[in-house]
Amino acid sequence: MGKKFEFSKLFINLLFTVLSLVVILPFLLVIAVSLTDEKSLTHNGYQFIPESFSLDAYRYLLDAPDILLRAYGVTFTVTIIGALAGLLLTAMTAYVISRQDYRYNRATTFYVFFTMLFSGGLVPSYILITQYLHLKDSLLALILPILLSPFNIMVMKGFMSKIPLEIIESAKIDGAREFRIFFRIILPLSTPALATLGLLISFTYWNEWFNAMLYIDDPNKVPLQLLLVRTLNSIEFLTTNSEFTGQLGIDLSSFPNSSARMAIAVLAGGPMLVIFPFFQRFFVKGLTVGSLKG
Amino acid sequence: MLVVQSLGHRQTAAAKEGKEGALVMLNKVPLAEQRASSGAPPGTRRRTWIGRELHHFKNNRELFLLSLPGLLYKLIFAYIPMIGLIIAFKNYRYDLGIFGSKWVGLDNFRYLFTTDTAWRITRNTVLYNTAYIVVGTSAALLLAILMNEIKAKWSKFYQTALFLPHFLSWVLVGYVAYAFLNHSDGFINRTLESFGLNPVSWYQDAGPWPVILILVQLWKVVGFNTLIYFAGIIGINSEYYEAARIDGATKRQMAFKITIPLMAPIIIIMLILSIGNMFRGDFGLHYFIPNNSGFLYGSTDIIDTYVYRALREVGNVSMSAATGFYQSVVGLVLVLTANGIVRKVDPDNSLW
């Protein structure tokens, strides 16, 4: 019995090892291709172990770092502003909903929640933002459409509902008004939930490409993910970008197309892939920190 | 008078605060205004309904102001676009605007449903979502149960590895897929060639795409879902397992007789709720992994990608709006139905 037991454990470990490899190997293929010499790529195809190792792709990309740096700048700006504004707005709305003694509690909950069930869809939002708010090619078009998610409000509300009403009551007795209570008492008490949601919102902004695809044409305002979208659609995006090639001042025929494509994926996606896993538990916690009904 | 009234209510609490608290209280008039709606003061009884509501509003106005930015935001970005749904019944022209464009009745819908487009994208959306739910849930559940059997030290490592794709955007997953599927140099074709088999034009052959999409989706989400279910299993009272062990139950028996039955309510609710989302496809998965290749639309195109293309690539705004309208309305019906079912089966887990 005991031996059979150990055997099944070994089998499970083996299964998970294989699965982990299956999950991780595709990442390694992308990195390997980005580090392979272009001639070797056309000759041998994409391989996990480069036949001839080369840093050319990175050299080309980093020789003219402007396009990448600007994309990082746009993404950073959008992420930071979006996360801070979104977090504050989420907390304010969630706090009001979490107050059982608020007269319009149920109405507000319904008002917020209904947008989760029904929406105007893509076209009306697109027309609103481009034709009426005139936000085309504005960073606001990247920030505003996903600023306040009903789901995050519900998570936050679930957390805030657990703050004892006595704390709020006694603050009122001391003469504090609602705004003061919210900013001085509720927000500091909600730090764990704020941290979790702040991370989730930042993550959403960092990986956002849909609104960029819809609203950004100006090359100066292209965020990282949109840069990736355009390079995926055609690697020529890099070589036809006159600014980029102008800076390079090189013979385009020697541009390492395939490896550069993968190198830009590594440069754009790599750093966060190293940083986010440290916060992995928060990503799961975000789902469990508050239940929908609270 | 109001102040006195509320003072009466607060007397006990004030006593706890001591003399100082009570003094502060007397100086603060707004306290009365912050009193919640419960129990209107007797003086208000004679007022009209509107007067009473105004009075309540005054009492709640600070909290209302706190929620106002959120309410306005939702008004502009969620409720006003709903008015725009009328575009589905118009021949929209950018120069004429929403209200200036001509009404065309149901023409857009007639066109949508007489071509096979509507059928194709509806079928694809529903079938893919069903497949993702069935495959994703069973795989994640199985892995979570297995993960519970091994030492925490090891499972931590596996968790991190399996979770990694969650941090990628679909665009980046598109790069990963491209590295494998690229026709001339891709890993799969080169491997096929080395075995003497013919390479496949992956981005032109619609046949294998259902399998590819399901595998890629599984690759990206299985780690996340496993951790969700794993957290649920860890939450099960360990006494059940101890009792079963004493009774000589095998691991498999414990999984089928304890873990799965106890997880069943969550799983069933998750399943029913995902029925509500049946009409919402995963745009990123279906746009970037097939690299928006026209050859593949037959087996990869879903409502979301069709709406996007009609708007941005074809420029047929009205058609796009009509499809979006169809998606929104059927989606709402499905959510309401799904929640209705949950409420019948298990009221505690319904959304409202």
Short description:
Chain A has 294 residues and is mostly helical.
Protein described:
The complex is a heterodimer of chains A (294) and B (352). Chain A is 72% helix and 0% strand. Chain A is mostly helical and 294 residues long. Chain B is mainly α and 352 residues long. In chain B, 72% of the residues lie in helices and 1% in strands. In chain B, helix 5 (107-114) packs across helix 16 (317-345) and helix 15 (303-314) runs antiparallel to helix 16 (317-345). The longest helix of chain B is centred in the N-terminal third of the chain and has 35 residues, at 49-83. The model of chain B is unreliable at 1-40 (pLDDT under 50). At the A-B interface, helix 1, helix 2, helix 4, helix 5 and helix 6 of A face helix 1, helix 3, helix 6, helix 7 and helix 8 of B.
Tag the structure with descriptive keywords.
heterodimer; A: 294 residues; mainly alpha; MetI-like fold; 72% helix; disordered C terminus; B: 352 residues; disordered N terminus
